[in-house]
Amino acid sequence: MNGSATFDVIVVGAGHAGCEAAHAAARMGRTTALLSGDLSAIARMSCNPAIGGLAKGQLVKEVDALGGLMGRLADAAGIQFKILNRSRGPAVWGPRAQCDKALYSRLAAQALSETPNLQLVEGMAEELVEEEGRVAGVVTGNGTRLGARAVVVTTGTFLRGLMHTGERRTEGGRVGEAAAVGLSAALARAGLALGRFKTGTPPRVERDTVDYDLCEPQRGDDPPVPFSFRTVALPSHQALCWLTSTNERVHDLIRANLHLSPMYSGRIVGIGPRYCPSVEDKVVKFADKPRHSIFLEPEGWDAPEIYINGLSTSLPEEVQRAILREVAGLANAEMIRPGYAVEYDFSFPDQLRGTLEARDVPGLFLAGQINGTSGYEEAAAQGIWAGINAALAVRGEEPFVLDRSEAYAAVMVDDLTTKGLEEPYRLFTSRAEHRLLLGVDSVLPRLLPHARRIGLVSSAEYSRAMRSEERLRRAESELRAAEIHPDRETREEFEKTIGIQLAEPTTLHKLLKRQDLSVELLMPYGPESLGALCREERAILESRVRYEGYIRRETDRVERMKPLEGRRIPEDFEYESLPGLSREVIQSCTRKRPRTLGEAGRIPGVTPAAVAIICAHVVRSRTSSA
Amino acid sequence: MRPSAESILDTIAALATPIGRSAIALVRISGERTREILSRVARELPNPVEPRRPYLVGLTDLHGEPIDRGFVTLFPAPASFTGEDVAELSVHGSPVVVETLIRALIGSGARPARPGEFTERAFRLGKMDLVRAEAIRDLIDSRTEAAARASSRRLEGALSSRLTGARENLLAAAASLAATIDFSEDVGEAVDPSVLLHLTAARDSLARLAATYDRGRLLSAGCRVAILGRVNAGKSTLFNALLGTARAIVTEIPGTTRDTIEATIDVRGIPVELVDTAGLRETDDHVEKLGVERAREEGKTAAAILYVFDASAGWAEEDAAVLAALDGKPVAVVANKIDRLEAPDRPGVTRLEPAGAARPALLLCGLAPEAGASLRALLAQTIAADVPGEAESGILASLRQLDLVERAHAAVGDALAALASGVSLEYAATHVDSGLAALADVFGEATSEDVLQRIFSTFCIGK
Predict the structure, then answer these.
(1) CA-based angle B279:B284:B286, to the nearest 5?
(2) Residues 6 or more apart from B299 whose CB is under 8 A from it?
């Protein structure tokens, strides 16, 4: 062994989780090293060329509000912007950007190189250094030892990665990149239980060989809306995506070759996600559907590749070619790269605390796909969460853990660390029981105060970012104050221009509760503050006014559960000696060390009665020690 | 923690003494809304109430109708059984009184307590030492693990399949809504029409299920039936016919029955308290006057009425007036003494149709040997008319189940109303979730994973 550089925090892996972790830790003033096997592949989008989507878009906005990179990189590298679920309220809007993959990666590298306290190091981590029961650094493939007080491992699908295309198998986490084998063994030696998942990608085809006339164009929003509160302007021009579909001929081909698909031939043992099925799965499980949508997504402004979204497969290359020939628009398409499935090790995330630190290995944090999640956004959110907590831990400061009613990121981390996993984890809005409070419209007021406190957002940025929220609040209170008296003139006016009958005195706020009225219609009678609102802000205002009762009920529910949900369980709490707890409950709680009664109640097998017993003793031990 | 329709923050109410007939029944309330609820059902209580002092007061239902008089004692937190505000209400031990009282408490904001919930609260707030706590461990555990198993056994069979049917419909609706929100790119943003069908089906089956509670209660607690009618209509004759013995004195003298006479009979498995009353008429006789008043009182409190008139005298306006005053209560009308009708010209035949009654009168002669059987059949039909027969069993057995089913029913109604009025899906979906949470509490199971499971098995998700 040689070398002895020492850092506060080392981040292993420079994917979406690693970049956010390293960036956050460094910006919090910790000397940080970001270690990657290939420094030219920073923040690579190894799967689809899009950031965001339903629930994922909310995560990106949360990462952004915490001072993270993903939102502004997606804004800067975006080639098409769209808010999904726009027909619904902002609570479930899902902003998404198609991105230029190469540009995204380049901008990420640039942002990291400009981050003070951050050093980029090329090399694969092969060993974990442990000293006095703590992780104290890593050893790289060439024997260099890097010391650190906290190590964040974010190696994605690289742990013992194995790629399948038909019967061909290649070791590696991504095409052309080596798998991390040593680290997997090191984590196992550190006592972490590992499982095996799989995921897949579709083939890529050459951009100029697609017959776009046979496909339906998919446009972005006009005007586009950025993810980041820092982004001032987006490009006026946007790229197109295209829609085509599979057909019965494609399905026949798939059925005829099913035995060559590694998943169906039994060669893949890892479990895949139900929400991101291979095309083989779709055809087998939904045999009655005559077609499945295929989205053609450019991988950049000028990139030669088109990503065939919807055709994820591990069938042999020649079968993939045959399939493409049958798809409208792709008859003459030239396949640049076949789709493949990748199997990889993950670490069961219920071995982690709510900070993403390994429960039994102090100083070791895990974030991203290594925790069994899928998706860039899930990775980034865990990355910033782990980075912040690693930075706090090395100074012995209070951990940063949010409540499930505060952020989607908190829902995800809580799900991962308390419930455990059976398939790759993806966030859905329906995983959040307080979904109505976690919309994109409330991200900034929810999270900016935390970011400012931790030091990831400056006071100046904070004030600037809160301006939209202030506009909304002013407009809402002015609507409340705007009384309408139904004298004859006003009645006639409202009937003529808006088409409603005014019977009794009211306010604009009350009128806006009606489903048939909008800010736009009321604008002529409203306060000037309405005029200052952009299209999204108007929709947010309408939703807040219209669903005030629902939102209040939800807030009330959170408030009422807080005394129980948030009650802390001491770190050294003895479950073993409690009368009335089953063996199973004692074991799970001793192993998982829930931080609060709420967390305890979400551990599988922990019954409400068990929570009541723990609660009684927590109260008792607090009062007896006081 | 799993979202539950039953929060530990709720104020709970339940009978604390054994179920069944006893001299005194003790109903207990615990929780932060205890005082507020007391002020609604015990309106005579002074304000403020002096702690730990029993007050003898009248208890009323939500409409101010008297239920009973009883002792009410308030034990403010923390010096109470549970450590919360607690009230104890001692009333007469009649199942009907207890039932009506608890329903009034629920109507005022309490919810029925789960088995062991008072003890659990006491335990949670440190009101019991650990030795005692260990002793009640089984009780608490029974609420969840063991009770869930036991209740799932109980739920097996008819009730379970009816609940499961409603729950399946709700799950299907919830999954479809969730898919429309979370996977709009795959399944489209429009609400699938099947959602409305599922919700409507769930609403209807929950309503039918809630209606079975009356029969469930009827089977266990029975009901009170008053025999009413004008003087000398033959009420006591019918009373005796139903009993099968000459219990009441029967004479030709109008006004023979001056006080109420009670007896319990079995009507197809339902215990029926039968009450013979004084004939309704204006009278100057002091004793008879009291009897008539008491008869009218019985007419108000009984669950069903057997109304008798003299066929030979015909249906009179006075009869119609009594019927109208009964206001929707199940009434069976009997035209008695048909043996006295003149067969050839039958002048009174048209007058045998009781104007204002829901059903035609049963024509009989109370003295005939088959009168008892005919009357029993009539009674069975009347008190259990709106609830399913034994063949269609699967009935709600406890007030708590009823409360949860009614809450689920209301939530589904809210969901349908929200969807009909164009409320955005993510908000409308909260009602479906509440409905599922309430049903999950009946079953003692979680649901959120079920919804996801349902989505993935129903919809092809993922680009």
Answers:
(1) 80
(2) B226, B228, B277, B305, B322, B325, B326
* Chain B positions with Cβ closer than 8 Å to A: 1-4, 7-9, 120, 123-126, 130, 133-134, 137, 140-141, 143-145, 178, 181-186, 189, 421-427, 430, 448, 451-452, 456, 460-463
CB A356 within 8 Å of CB A386: yes
How far does the CA of residue A8 sit from the closest CA of chain B (Å)? Answer: 36
Question: With pLDDT > 90 as the criterion, what percentage of chain B qualifies?
Answer: 30
User: With contacts defined as CB-CB under 8 Å, which chain B residues touch A515?
Assistant: 421-423
| pLDDT band, residue B392 (cuts 50/70/90) | very low
E strand map for B169-255:
223-229
The model's pTM is: 0.80
| Residues of chain B neighbouring A274 (CB-CB closer than 8 A) | 456, 461-462
Q: Which residue has the tokens 């952020």?
A: A407
Q: Are A425 and A374 in contact (CB under 8 A)?
A: yes
**Mutation test of the interface with chain A: which of B6, B114, B182, B443, choosing the one with the most A Cβ atoms within 10 A?**
B182
Residue tagged 């800067």 (tokens): A76
DSSP state at residue A418? I
Contact between A261 and A189 (Cβ < 8 Å): no
Q: Above 50 in pLDDT, residue B145?
A: no
Q: Residues A210-236: pLDDT tens digits?
A: 999 999 999 999 999 999 999 988 988
Q: Is the ipTM of this complex over 0.90?
A: no
Inter-chain residue contact A619 with B125, CB threshold 8 Å: yes
Place of tokens 């329903």: B103
Question: Cβ–Cβ of A430/B422 closer than 8 Å?
Answer: no
Q: Identify the weakest region by mean pLDDT among A35-49, A137-151, A177-191, A472-486.
A: A177-191
Helix, coil or strand: residue B162: helix
The angle subtended at Cα A125 by Cα A119 and Cα A129, nearest 5°, is: 95
Chain B residue with CA closest to A548: the answer is B427
Which amino acid is residue A21, in one-letter code? Answer: A
